[in-house]
Design brief:
By secondary structure, the chain is mainly alpha-helical. Helices cover 74% and strands 6% of the residues. The protein has helices at residues 18-48, 51-56, 63-93, 100-122, 131-154, 159-172; strands at 3-7, 10-14. InterPro entries: VanZ-like.
Length: 174
């Protein structure tokens, strides 16, 4: 039996060959490392991003562009930890099918890391800890939870749900 799958740049067929199983193992390891790599990137961004540097160049940029940058930075809170939640979901899918308890653990981990990141920002000289930012992070996780939950459990024709289910199917078949 030959099983073929196409994921982003990975194309492989499982036909009993060691090479295909090796690629699946690398793919599994890559997917499992994504949330932790992303957490490191969040930590580095929180540590080294200085918003006051943007103020120093504000005299050279027109006002509408500055407003757009400000809005995008605020929207990043909604997106940043929602992405972390999705990466934890993918992490769990590399082991078995998604269950509601996995969703809960992924949400708690993403929110907990959001709290840790806000506390971390308290100790960075040019950053601040903000309850509003924490609320935005929680809302972002909640929005992505709704999307993933409905896509995976409720909608049979969802492309997102199909993609997530295929992660488990492909990685279990090896």
């Amino acid at each position: 039996m030959v099983y073929c799958s196409l994921y982003s740049t990975f194309y492989w067929c499982k036909s009993g060959k060691k090479g295909a199983l090796y690629i699946v193992s690398i793919y599994r390891l890559l997917l499992r490392s994504l949330p932790f790599t992303y957490m490191l990137l969040i930590w580095l961004q929180s540590s080294y991003f200085n918003p006051e540097e943007l103020a120093s160049i504000s005299s050279q940029i027109n006002v509408p562009f500055i407003l757009i940058i400000g809005i995008l930075l605020e929207l990043l809170h909604f997106i940043q930890f929602g992405i972390l939640y999705a990466l934890f979901i993918i992490f769990f899918l590399t082991f078995q099918e998604l269950k509601p308890k996995h969703e809960l653990v992924a949400a708690v981990l993403a929110i907990l890391y959001s709290v840790i990141d806000e506390i971390h920002q308290f100790y960075i000289p040019y950053r601040s800890m903000s309850g509003i930012d924490l609320l935005k992070n929680v809302v972002g996780v909640g929005l992505l939870w709704m999307i993933i939950h409905k896509s995976y459990f409720k909608r049979s024709r969802s492309k997102i749900g199909h993609f997530l289910k295929n992660i488990t199917i492909v990685l279990k078949s090896s």
